[in-house]
Amino acid sequence: MAQLRQFNLTQLKQLIAGKDGMLANNYITQNLAVARNVRIQLIKKQLIGQPTLMPEMRILIIKQGWATPIINMMERRFEPGDLVFLGSRGILEYQEASDDIQGIGLSVSDELFALAIGNRVPAAFDGHLRDFQMHLEPADQDYLDQLHLLLYRHLSQQDGSSQVTLNLLSAFLWYVDHLWSRHEQTGRQSQTREQRLFTDFIALVSEYAPAHHTIDSYASRLCITPRYMSTIIRQVSGKSAKQWIDDALVTRIKIDLKHTDKPIARIADDMNFPNPSFMTKFFKRMTGMTPRSFRQ
């Protein structure tokens, strides 16, 4: 994964400035981006069709239009009023988006985040979530928009105070955390036990698929029997637990084959296969191609 293609804030700035010679309502440095006009159609052309690593955390609020990206190997759909968070080193792949899609965005490096937040880290950003999505009420969306606008206007001043920047950034992040905490509490209460188990299962698969290929390992982490877990996952999703595990594993192998120069033997070892032959048989069964053919 170390050689997975990246798209950092410096590249984003070069892309936007290179298109029309100016940043057009967007403030971007190597540590911070405050975008009043997120140009998703322009960015999409650079990222569509292949997984891309995002080194910095990203927050996007959709104002109009829609998009259907893959985030950390899970398909999503974004609509107007949705707030989307992607943690640092998250994996994004664009698929489709409407021509009229618009929104505002914020991207922060880990270093600047630490300076803005200090010793007490909001629960939404403490690292236990790789990503999340929630729908905002109009009043909450307007409040975040005003905080975002204040931050942008301050950054646009030539003599703006760095301490004010950090405080405004902190206020924005803490308010997102407040909304997430409220949303999480409501969401968990409305979910059935089976839905919560499925959500927890998917989070584990997203994190541990390269290392753990069997149902037993995930059932053990969830403190339930493999049979019960398999039954619930199929009832909730229509797919077996093993299908979810295998699909996540194939995606990871594809990423390494396409976006790194690792030898196939090294990939097999990283993905915890006994030897390259085992991985080749697994990959061909899942895709109809050998790893070598897929890479070529």
Distance between the termini: 19 Å
List low-pLDDT spans.
Answer: 18-22
**Rg to the nearest angstrom?**
21 Å
User: Structural class, judged by helices and strands?
Assistant: alpha+beta
Strand content: 15-25%
Helical residue percent band: 40-55%
Rounded mean pLDDT score? 85
Largest sheet: 6 strands, antiparallel
General shape: globular
Order of helices and strands: HEEHEEEEEEEHEHHHHHHHHH
Task: Give me a quick take on this structure.
The chain has 296 residues and is α+β, with helices and mostly antiparallel strands.
Structure description:
- The protein has 296 residues and is α+β, with helices and mostly antiparallel strands.
- 52% of the residues lie in helices and 17% in strands.
- The protein has 12 helices and 10 strands.
- It has helices at 9-20, 40-47, 110-117, 138-156, 162-190, 193-208, 215-222, 226-237, 241-259, 264-270, 276-287, 291-295, and strands spanning 26-28, 32-35, 52-54, 57-64, 67-71, 74-75, 82-86, 90-97, 102-108, 131-135.
- The strands form 2 sheets. It has a 6-stranded antiparallel sheet with strand order 1-2-9-4-7-10, with helices on both faces. It has a 4-stranded antiparallel sheet with strand order 3-8-5-6.
- Helix 3 (110-117) crosses helix 5, helix 4 packs antiparallel against helix 5 (162-190) and helix 6 (193-208) crosses helix 8 (226-237).
- The chain is globular.
- The model is unreliable at 18-22 (pLDDT under 50).
